[in-house]
Amino acid sequence: MRLTIRNFSAWILASLLILLGFVRRAKRKAMHGRFMLSVYFHKPSKREFEACVKWLKKNGFTFISTSDLENIIQHELELPKGAILLTVDDGWQTNEANIVEVVNKYHVPVTIFISSEPVEEGAYWWSYVTKAQQLPLQAPSKHALKQLQNEARLSIVRDLRAKITLPREAMTVEQVKRITASGYVTVGGHTHTHPILINCEDEVVYEELRISKQKLESWTGAKVNSFAYPNGNYGSREIKALQDLEYRLAFSSDPLYITREKLKDRYEIPRFGLLEGASMAENICRMVGVWQTVLHKLRLPSSRKPTEKDRQNQVQSGETPPLLSNVESPLVTPG
C-alpha cells in the first residue's frame, strides 16, 4: 500500500467492511450464481496483481475469459458459480512482467485492451500533460482536457509533444506479439489514440475503432473481438460503430455486477475498477463490488449522476444502485 492519508483512511473503512461481513455476503451471492464479477486494472505492480489472483483462487472463484463470456451470452456455456473476469486497460509496458507472467504462473485468463498508437509511438497523451505540469509548462489538467472536443484536446497535446520527450511507457509491437503467444492472454481493442469517444466526430469514432482493430489483428494474427471504452464513455453511436466493425463484446467502467439481465447488453458489460497503490483490503472490497455500493450509500458527492437507463436497469435487476463513475472523493478510483 502506498502510504497516504487517503489510502490509510480507505484501509480503515475497507477493514471495517470486511470485519462486518460485507465481503463474505457478496462472495456468498457470487458463489450461488446470482451474478458474475468483472474487474479491470491499468498498471498494477506484480505484487498487487498476484495478491489479487491468489486471494480469488483461495476463495474459490472461477476465472473466465472474454471468449467464455461470449459463450455464456450465447447460451453455449452455463453461467458458472463464482465466476470472475480479469481485464486490463491501455497496454502498459510493465503489463508483460506484472500481469502476463502471473497469469501464466497461475493458469488464469486475462484480456488486455490495448491502444495502438502508444504502442507505435511510446507514450500516452495524458502523460505529456502530467509532465508539463511538473516542469512546469502551462497546460490544462487531464480532467479538463477530457471535457474538450477532440480537436481542441489534440491541438493542446500536439503542442506539448513538441516541447516534451518521454520514455517509452506502452508495450512495443514485439511485446504485443509475445504476450499473444500465451494461451492465457486475449488482446482486445481500446481505440487507436485513446480519445474520449463521445467528444469525437462520427468519422473519427469509426476510424479510431477500425484502425485499432486492423493494427492489433495484423500484429497478433488473431481476431480482435472485444473492446473497452476509454474512460468508460460511450453512447448508442459508439455501440453501432462497434457492431458495424464486427466487435462482439464491449466493456464499460460502470461498477455493477454482471447479472443475467446485464448479459442482454453485450456492448455494455460492466466492470469494477481496482486502484493501484491502495490497500489489499480496499481492493478486495472493490473486486466483490462492496466498495462502490457502500460509498453510494454514504452519498459521497459524484461528478456523474445515474441516468434514467441506469436506474431502470438497477430496478429490473434488483440491485442496490452503486456509484456509477468517477467520483470527486478521496476514496474513489480517479479517472
TrEMBL record:
CDD domains: CE4_NodB_like_5s_6s (cd10918). It comes from Pontibacter actiniarum. Keywords: Signal. Residues 82-335 form the NodB homology domain. It comes from the Bacteria. The lineage of its organism: Bacteria, Pseudomonadati, Bacteroidota, Cytophagia, Cytophagales. This is Polysaccharide deacetylase. One of its GO terms (molecular function) is hydrolase activity, acting on carbon-nitrogen (but not peptide) bonds. PROSITE patterns: NODB (PS51677). The keyword Glycoprotein does not apply.
